[in-house]
Amino acid sequence: MAIVFEKTKGLTDVQTHYCPGCTHGIIHRIVAEAMEELGVLEKAIGVAPVGCAVLAYNYFNCDMHEAAHGRAPAVATGIKRVLPDNFVFAYQGDGDLASIGTAEIVHAAHRGERISSIFVNNAIYGMTGGQMAPTTLVGQKATTAPYGRDEALCGKPIRMSEMLATIDGAKFVERVSVNSPANVRKAKKAILECFKIQIEGKGFGIVEVLSTCPTNWGYTPVEALRWLENNMIPYYPLGNFKRPEEGK
Amino acid sequence: MSKVLMKGNEAVGAAAIKAGCRFFFGYPITPQNEIPEYMSRELPKVGGVFVQAESEIAAINMVYGAAGCGARVMTSSSSPGIALKQEGISYIAGAELPCLIVNMMRGGPGLGGIQPSQTDYFQATRGGGNGDYRLLVLAPANIQEMVDLIIEGFDLADEYRNPVMILGDGMIGQMMEPVEFKERKKRDLPEKDWITTGTKGKRKPNIINSLYLNPEELEDHNIWLQEKYKKMKEKEVRVESYNVEDSDVVISAYGTTARIARTAISKLEKEGYKVGLIRPISLFPYPFEEFNKIKDDCKGVLTVEMNTGQMLDDVRIALNGRIPSYFYGRTGGMVPTPEAIANKVREILGGEK
Ligand SMILES: Cc1ncc(C[n+]2csc(CCOP(=O)(O)OP(=O)(O)O)c2C)c(N)n1
Ligand code: SF4
Ligand SMILES: [Mg+2]
User: Fold this and answer.
1) Which residue, B219, B235, B251, sits at the end of a domain?
2) Are strands B4-7 and B176-179 parallel, antiparallel or unpaired?
3) pLDDT per residue over B111-139, tens digit each?
4) Hey, which CATH number is domain A24-125+134-242, 3.40.50.1360, 3.40.190.10, 3.20.20.80, 3.40.50.970?
5) pLDDT tens digit sequence for B50-84
6) Residue among A42, A58, A83 whose CB faces B199 most closely
7) Can you tell me the distance from the alpha carbon of A219 to that of A225, in angstroms, rounded to the nearest whole number?
8) How far apart are CA B57 and CA A137, in angstroms?
9) Given an 8 Å threshold on Cβ–Cβ distance, is B62 in contact with A43?
10) Does residue A69 have its Cβ closer than 6 Å to ligand 1?
């Protein structure tokens, strides 16, 4: 019988712990497929965050480190400096990357570390039970913003991709979403391009992926996809912010 | 090999490179800046890598990444910076990674001052960060000893898969002394089959991790760590002693403070006093048993530190009430004088020789 679909070799057979309808799983899959397609799985070293993806070290089928909250880009720096010919990626949530770990991500980009960053923005602290993140939308309720995020007290949500794109060492910056099959395909394309930046030794690359958290948003999986489309995408525009110019 | 005159902090760098360290991640802070400066100058010459991190937090997490890939790796800082590194040190101890950390202590708390002190004894010997872990803590009293301990320290880190801390003070970092870089004995070190270098399609993935969500597993992990620390206590105690058995007062001091105490002892001996010295070189594991050699009718053990009494706790544990315990300390960057220490001893003996 002809094989029409095979699970990527980039993921282990371990069943993930993600909630039903959570898009962390989709993101894992396209990251893993990208590594497999680029032939880098056997020399890949990944860094898992603290957040819902903390157990990613059990899911990606390659060598892994589990980093402290927010420090994945520093850990990835240490790895890449020792093993410059290996493929090194970090996978982080928005609390991890855009709050406690802002210094680490900004300076990894600033040094032009030849690593790839997957930034999963679900506008909330998923793992700890739905507290406000720096990325939580104005008016969006969270357990530590029970009346909705108040711009006067908390500021507006931070747009990391736009900020990182201003840094010279960041060579590839793109925001994608996984709320529809078409967007999943685009997300994978961006991740492939981002990974190639590292493989070609061009510098730092990051893909921000808008992701759902049905559990803490308080929606069904389908409602959550719709909420992402109607509320997150207008504030966090999809698209490429930076890629190396032709021939460079 | 001949001796060369070197500043303490530069000797740290030279010893590390001699020991095969090729990766350094650090952040500037006085009084240890000569270490990162030396490494930034010398590592590229031997194919090594120096990174000035954005903070001490980042630096120690880079060490975590590098150590997980099997590199001989080091970071250095001084007290406020070492405080920031505690998160990473705890993860490194939990994930059982080898590395070397140098603390050239300065006065605290807070920003404190930039003069020498020994106020991080508790932090260094009790774990410092979260969780029930220990570092191997070595406290040199002169530059030659520091060089030797660093070279050996990298081997100890590999042997135990544990972070090793060299606990110095501003004084030892800044002074100059002749040193010799001896050829080190090759140790039989365990093979690093746990490191992440890519599976190359030949083995299952390796994972560097300190998370155990299952409490039974985490308890087992902690029991294993304690077994490792027990082995250190059996095998790695280092101490230098002088006239411990029949002295009327025994001084206990480590690092540069022990040198000052030694000067005080010479002075007192000329006056006819019998004074001994216990100088712990390993602060963890602590040389508790050495104190058992002190005679029962010894008038007192005087602990001297550049703090308000931290190692004092360990001395009291060692004495267990058998002999009176006294303390003399200066703090804030003030250094005890030999005369002040001698006075304290005369006071304990009430003029009796
Ligand atoms: C130093 C430290 N502070 C706080 C925590 C608790 N904590 C665990 S996960 C998390 C937030 C994670 O949120 P995010 O990065 O957005 O990931 P998500 O779970 O949403 O995927 C926090 C605050 C921790 N583990 N360590
Ligand atoms: S809490 Fe949210 S982010 Fe975490 S697994 Fe569940 S749905 Fe996903
Ligand atoms: Mg989140």
Assistant:
1) B235
2) antiparallel
3) 999 999 999 999 999 999 999 999 999 99
4) 3.40.50.970
5) 999 999 999 999 999 999 999 999 999 999 999 99
6) A42
7) 9
8) 29
9) no
10) yes
